[in-house]
Amino acid sequence: MLVAVPLFDRFTSLDAVGAYEVLSFLPDVEVVFVAAERGPVRDVRGWLAMTAGATFDEVESCDLLLVPGGPGTRVLLEENPLLDWIRRMDATSEWTASVCTGSLLLGAAGLLTGLKATTHWASAELLESLGASYTTDRVVFQGKVVTAAGVSAGIDMALALVARLTDELTARAVQLGIEYDPQPPFDSGSPLTATSEIRARFRELAAQRARAS
């Protein structure tokens, strides 16, 4: 099974790595990180780089397409080689998935029109402008298209995919292997539980990070 993960400047590292860690437990799996050029691609802060081992031209198909998000998605919503490649992968993939604002790229590629989908809560309106119907669900399955909410939700999505690709016992075993037993210190991990003050503070932090990038 070939899992293809596109990388682009200013992606969010956990979007890619969280799901990758889960999916790497699948038997007979191969994961390839793909970009416009081979070599390092830097995340949103520029401190962490992941290595693309193949270019868009070199990967002609995959079984599972996994699209991460990040601030870098915003400049990729107009026609560009990444959107073309996403469409090509989706044409024959068994599964097409996104984490966080990776769903914006699926929407920009025309793959979410008329479908329910999720994304980072702060990008809900933008997602709907790209043809999807936003839902606050953490993981959304619509046929072969799977979208996950913000960042950490990619782990949940990947575990749900493992259950469908193998069985629930295997997915539970992988969950144990990564000791995924969330016990957050605060009940503010969702816009449904976070106060307006918390949401405003997040936006301040995000703006500060963007200026520092």
TrEMBL record:
Residues 3-163 form the DJ-1/PfpI domain. One of its GO terms (biological process) is regulation of DNA-templated transcription. PANTHER family: ARAC-FAMILY TRANSCRIPTIONAL REGULATOR, DJ-1_PFPI DOMAIN-CONTAINING PROTEIN. This is DJ-1/PfpI family protein.
